[in-house]
Design brief:
This protein is of the alpha/beta class. It contains 14 helices and 14 strands. Keywords: Pyridoxal phosphate, Transferase.
């Protein structure tokens, strides 16, 4: 065995021992929140397709038409091969939706945050990140070379303490947070955070990956980032900001400059989905309503978003509960460290407009039987 393979096998053995090894499981997704695994039909509560638009025939038709007209790929980076009309149209619509001057589409949400943060901050600057922020926010901060500090989750007092202590030594400062936190489902106190940022001349970047179209009310940050792969059912990432910021990122964001552009079909799908988000408000409101139905039936605090965590503690417990639910026809995947802090393994229940009330009630009843006394 080579030293490389020995290293890999040793690392995998340690993951197995801690119940932290992950494996890819063949899964087919379909309409009405359905998923197929090992020949069994399951109701999925583990998907970020909050409005079910990846399965919407109007969105599929838009993607098919774009692919027939323009082909399957972009060919090269947008600065090399040219700025595709579908991407221009999508950026104009995203900017209008967020009320900003301009927008820039990236290959994914992760690539967007890598490029945004590292393009706007560098050596001599300060980055403050919510402790429960997504991995890509921390990756972008590390890539930038700026001093990066964590503030306690949604703790404005701790954030202000850090700003008071460190802001004066930094040339520029950024605050990175999420509108809806992906593993906890709670929301950032954006209005208060924006006021604090203005006081200390800091720029706020909001990762809106899990808020777009379903939880968008309230304060808007100067840097509104998000994805096309969740509510919009397509693929890609974006930033909405001022024209000057977008022009700068077009030149400086390495994950934009040096990567192939988004396929036209993805842009067309996102455009069609955005039409539905804006013209069917009752559909956009449904995921949060279902999440609140679920928390009410279980006696849990009212859901703030379509994401409800059921924290069980240890990884083994989360895996066992997930397996028991799958046996009853529900796909609710266990989330374990390092995605969440040690001792907080959980089931992350994600609600979609594609689910029915009966499906939501069925999951609630199963959880009450399998795991009484649950917490979030």
């Amino acid at each position: 065995m080579s030293s490389l393979d020995a290293f890999a096998c040793d690392a995998l053995a340690k993951l197995d021992a801690a119940s932290l090894r992950r494996r890819l499981v063949s899964t087919e997704r379909g309409p009405e929140a359905r998923a197929a695994r090992d020949g069994r039909s399951l109701v999925s509560f583990s998907c970020n397709d909050y409005l079910g638009l990846s399965q919407d025939l109007r969105v599929i038709a838009a993607a098919n038409a774009a692919q027939t007209r323009w082909g399957t790929g972009a060919g090269a980076s947008r600065l090399v091969t040219g700025n595709h009309p579908a991407l221009v149209a999508l950026e104009e619509r995203l900017a209008a939706h967020k009320g900003t001057e301009a927008a820039l589409v990236f290959g994914s949400g992760y690539l967007a945050n890598l490029g945004i943060v590292s393009a706007l901050a560098g050596t001599g600057d300060l980055i403050l990140v919510d402790a429960l922020g997504h991995s890509c926010l921390f990756s972008g901060g590390r890539l930038s070379g700026a001093e990066m500090l964590r503030f306690r989750h949604n703790d404005l007092g701790h954030l202000e303490t850090l700003l008071a202590k460190h802001r004066g030594k930094a040339q520029r400062a950024m605050i990175l947070t999420e509108r809806v936190f992906s593993m906890d489902g709670d929301r950032a106190p954006l209005a208060e955070m924006m006021a604090l940022a203005e006081k200390h001349d800091a720029w706020v970047l909001v990762d809106d990956a899990h808020g777009l179209g379903v939880v968008e009310t309230g304060a808007q940050a100067p840097l509104e980032m998000g994805t096309l792969s969740k509510t919009l059912g397509a693929y890609g990432g974006y930033l909405c900001a001022s024209q000057a910021v977008i022009d700068l990122l077009t030149n400086r964001a390495r994950s934009f400059v040096y990567t192939t552009g988004l396929p036209p079909a993805s842009a067309a799908a996102a455009l069609a989905a955005l039409d539905i988000v804006e013209t069917e408000p009752e559909r956009a409101a449904r995921p949060l309503a279902l999440a609140r139905r679920f928390t009410a039936r279980l006696g849990l605090p009212q859901a703030q978003s379509p994401i409800v965590p059921i924290v069980v503690g240890e990884a083994e417990t989360a895996l066992a509960l997930s397996k028991a639910l799958e046996a009853r026809g529900f796909l609710v995947v266990a989330i374990r460290p390092p995605t969440v802090p040690a001792g907080t393994a959980r089931l992350r229940v994600a609600f979609s407009a594609a689910q029915s009330e009966a499906q939501v009630d069925g999951l609630a009843e199963a959880l009450l039987e399998l795991h009484p006394g649950m917490t979030t």
